[in-house]
Amino acid sequence: MAIHRWVGDSTQASFEDMGNLYSSRYDPLFYAHHSNVDRMCTLWKSLGIQGHTKPTDPDWLNASYVFYDENEDLVRVYNKDCINMDKLNRPAKRNKESQVALTSTEDVKTVDQLKFLVTLDGILKNRVKRPAVNMNDAEKAKANDVLLINGIKFDGEKYVKFDVYVNDTLKEGEVTTPCDPEYAGGFAQIPHSGMDKMMMSSAASFGLTELLEDTNTEGEEYATVTLVPRIGCDDLTISDIKISLVPI
Ligand SMILES: [Cu+2]
Q1: Domain check: are 15 and 49 in the same one?
Q2: Quick one: residue 134, left, alpha or beta (phi over 0 = left, psi -120 to 50 = alpha)?
Q3: How far is the CA of 160 from the centre of ligand 1 (A)?
Q4: 140 and 29 in one domain?
Q5: Structurally, how many domains does the chain consist of?
Q6: Ligand 1 mean position to 69 CA, how many Å?
Q7: For the segment 67-119, what is each residue's pLDDT rounded down to a tens digit?
């Protein structure tokens, strides 16, 4: 809801477009925002915590609404349709290329064996030493485990994206996606069109405290960090990968 009010135009009578129910779907951001809400809901359900389940009340499940579809036909949509991930086609969309299989960490090099700069022209998987393990609640309240990817250089004229997974332990044939707890986040840059080729420089940081809790890997001395190039990364270089404790 907060997103709707932040994005809605405060100079409009009813915070159109995003800030009002009737008009929010006119803003393309609506669809990105709500896909993310579905993603977070899927994550929440997968945590294995008691009570993190789908609604079961038939009154709620069978409540319905009518909309016009893309052919201007009236269609009725039920609440139960909106919590059925198979209907939303999520699992089918998982593609083989996004697979980041890791069956053993033994053959994965530590990051200090890497020669920087590295070019992200393929999947890059390394073990990164953590500054502290098994922090207690008091320590966690003071500092976050943060993965820092520094000196990211890329062509500013291209769409660039890579994903970051940490402690991915999936087996052969399984697929890691942004719905899984091993997904730390992504780095993406939209092109500055009209420019001549210009290398741009950036950095990215990813909070790991909750990810390490969710994947039961808080006690491990090393985190296995996997960078997966998605688009435009053939000439993207990175100058440093490390994990630091960042005071809150
Ligand atoms: Cu909404």
Answers
A1: yes
A2: left
A3: 28
A4: no
A5: 2
A6: 18
A7: 888 899 999 999 998 888 777 665 444 444 444 444 445 578 888 888 999 99
